[in-house]
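Table S2 (continued). Query chain:
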Amino acid sequence: MTRPARAVPPWLAHALRAQRGPVPWSAVTRGALGGGPLLLAAVLAGRPTLGVVAAIGAMFAGINDRPGSRRASVGRIGGPALAGAAGLVVGTYAGDHVFAVLLTLLLTGLGLVAGAVSALGPVGSSVGTQLLVGAAVGAGMPLPEPGWQRALAFLAGAGWLLLLRLALPTPGSLAGGFRFDGERNAVAGVYDAIAGLLDATGSDTATARRAALTAALDHAQDALAGPRLRRYASSSAERRLHARYAAALPLAEAATALAWAGDPVPVRAAEGPRRLATAVRDSAPTGPLPAPSRTVPALRALDDALLRAAEAFDRGDGGDLHGRSRSRTAALRTVLGARGREYGTRVALCFGVSAALAQALHHTRWYGQHDHWYWLPATAVFLVKPDLGPLASRVLSRAAGTVLGALLFAGFAAVLPRPEGLVALVTVSGALIPVATRHFAAQTAVVTVLVLALVMAGGEPQASVGRIGETLLACAVVLVAGHLPMPGQRGGAAIRARLTEAAGAAQAYLDHVLGGSDDRAGRWALRREAYRTLAEARAAIALASAELPPLARHADGTDETAATLELLVDTVTAGAVHLDETGRLDPRHVRRLTELADRLGSRGDVAVRLTPDRDRVVR
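Corresponding output:
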């Protein structure tokens, strides 16, 4: 009798899994043109240490240089770069004028603020990370330049890579317009996702395809809604893209309603969205669109949405993005709420303890004759970032990547000429970052080689063995601190906060539909927010569930709550489409809404209520 194979623990499975996809050659080119040329220019000018700081800024910008639109890259790269420059200034002046104990307290307080800001999302997380790494480098990497010069050099490095991102074309962008290539691909991806959901209607993959549609809509919203000089679209090409995105929203709604019903749809139903996707990518006319059958309300809604989309493609007169309109008060509430407090406390603990240990080792001369002690706290910052995977997986990947990177650099340093060999190493490492970001261990190995090459170019002796020891010590600190119970907080407070936010968005969407409002644009905005907050909650739950048991147990049962909320939002969407067609809700929708609301109430995690006005729209 054979024994059943034991399942691999989730945290280990995450550590062994890497993202896949084509090589982003445009990002590779930008990485090669980033830190290496900056370092070379500084060396030739006789200011290698300024080149080191500029190349570090370019390195961080390269890490944040993800696929998407040029407009979105401004905030994704520029915001964290400003935070990193501020951290450099604070760290430099604090390291020069504050004694060790007070410096540790200052860095700990900075960790509390940066950790809380990281709760705002991926950009907030990058802002917090660069703020803390900048502070650690400023305080722990003695350089001859004052803090303000370091900050300017850091911004120059990040700004140089951002300029490359804005100026260099990406593959295929010249065919349909250079300026909006990322936005165009994002909008086309929405239509492809709608077609995929229609293909999957009535099958077991419909739920996954609906989640993919949510992700595509989120990506398109972010791509189109980046920072702008004017409030509204300023060119006909941009207005055309906005119109094509807005035209996808009723199609997505009808497709979701069909998936909720669970009945297979005719094959030709998905052909129209696919032709629209091609038209968006090629900036071409739509051509004739095959009309789906009109046998049920959702199919009639799909047909009507296709007709409206064809008109919108022809007019190209703009459209509302129905994006997130979060106020400063809402952002402050997130920072000061359960998510901000929980993450901020852990970041402060890890960063503060690591800084204290680093200074103790520095003052006892464990580092030898050089004064650089930034590595340990900077490593802790990366390890404590939750958006890089489960804690145990991050620790394992960071340790393996650092050992590999340090050993590789030791071999390169023994044979490469200086400084030209170090410049070449920085150039190659910068080019590899966009590919290495697919796995944390690979990214760590590449960044380790790059940073060790930079600091050696700046005058620090080869210290691969010491960096390995500091990394392992940081791993131990974060692994212990990451599993400590937080005083005054119940476990999983951040997840419950995510679920509460998702339930609030679902309630607002439900109230709007049951209230019988004719404001479809408002309904689409509420639906987008409901699905987006649910996707964020599901991602947080999946991450927590993959942790080691002491942390994973806090996520027990939360996935079922999120799944119930998603079913409720799907039902509201299906009911809204039926309401548009008939003027009344079908009893099947009301029964399902009542059942799901009762199920949520019985679980006790969150609650959703049906409004008393629902009787006005029930048959």
